[in-house]
Request: fold
Amino acid sequence: MSGMVYLVGAGPGDYRLITLKAIECLQKADVVVYDRLADDRILRWAKSDAEMIYVGKASANHTMKQGDINQLLANKAKEEKCVVRLKGGDPFVFGRGGEEALLLKAQGVPFEIVPGVTSAISVPAYAGIPVTHRAVATSFAVVTGHEDPTKVSSSMRWDKLATATDTLVFLMGVENLPYITKQLIDNGRAADTPAAVIRWGTKPEQRTLVTTLGSAAEDVKRNGIKPPAIFIVGDVVKLRDELSWFDATDSRPLFGKTVLVTRSRPQASRMTEKLEGLGARVVELPAIRIDDPADGYEAVDAAISLIASYDWLIFTSVNGVDRFFDRLYAANKDARDLTKAHFAAIGKATAARLKHYGILADIVPKEYRAEGVIEALKNELAPGERVLIPRAQEAREILPESLRAYGAIVDVAPVYETKEADVDAAEVKEMLAAGEIDFATFASSSTVRNLVKIIGDASLLAKTKVVAIGPVTAETCGELGIKVAAMPEEYTIDALTNAVARLAAE
Reply:
């Protein structure tokens, strides 16, 4: 198979603005050559064994020269590899994709262009500023904020550009703003023309400064606005007052807030999605990972071999459900072998996971913890009935001990173990120390204990409001000297997320 290069636009910052075709390319790439991306989560779509090569450029700091990047793409493709060249925005809008494509063409390397959502229109849109609007602006121009420094003379026709279109959008122009604004004013654009500078557009940390053409340079300096940012000039800026939506705290109460999520990475996505929907910037630092139980699967496999003898199966987590059914299927059994048993689930999420496997829980307690299950089973469980609890390797013994006190015969079968995640916590530690994380969320006691091990010092959370999913997790926080600011009445991830939003509103 011959090599192939895809020149792919990653979009402006919000990772969800990447295109389906871009994801398809990443999923089959052998090599990913990428710039400094606004959101590294885009790289998660790449294959786990893909070769990742960072060639990012930030202002005057270049990791690799452009000519070397061009040749790198060609060389990797000549090794019969599928190569994705991933760059922010669109590869043909000041992305130097044309230069890369020309070298590939010259060396006979096949390539495709995968357009990306450009910041020229998406960033103003996230700020509530349309680049065109009937009766306000019927044309717009996209302009580089800095030209190729190797050019002998500027090709910018300021005398034409200043008044040629209703809306002007300058990319990468914040550092040259004094020069840009002077040229526009000197060439006929009114100094009182509405203007805006938008930093980190489409991301939760987006910041929009509304100003005028004549005041923009001074306002940017006074407010300390640094790249990456775009500069937009035109009457369309006035529409922001009515069309602002992304940073509207009435509908997105967590905008401008940073939330730490400590769940295992596969489970973090749902909570992250909900928090981001409320406007939050989410920092994921998985404190736990789900692994095989230390003692192996002998206990659960033995129980499954006698599955018809059990009167009750009790599940205390979603992970327990998934791991149990994995072992059930491995034994060439399925839900039809569970017809005798009744089922109890510790909460709505666990019950929903059971339903995924075709099982409706007979009991879901009002209180989503072990004590709630015990209370719910008090009048349901007959002495001598057999109970199987597939659960984590390490868990509180209150549930099996209490059920035995009722006269039940209880088997506990470990189906997974939570371990400390192997993650780099340096950036999060710096953010915690600087007070840059507004809220930290904990969905289990193990996430609390392991996060403290990872960051090394529980006092780093002193400047952060901690939200615990329930009393057991809150108690663990207290044991480690961590003050809990809020706890939802219902012990679910949705309720935990809503508790963060209420705390922010307060």
User: Anything to note?
Assistant: The two ends are 60 Å apart (CA to CA). The mean pLDDT is 93.
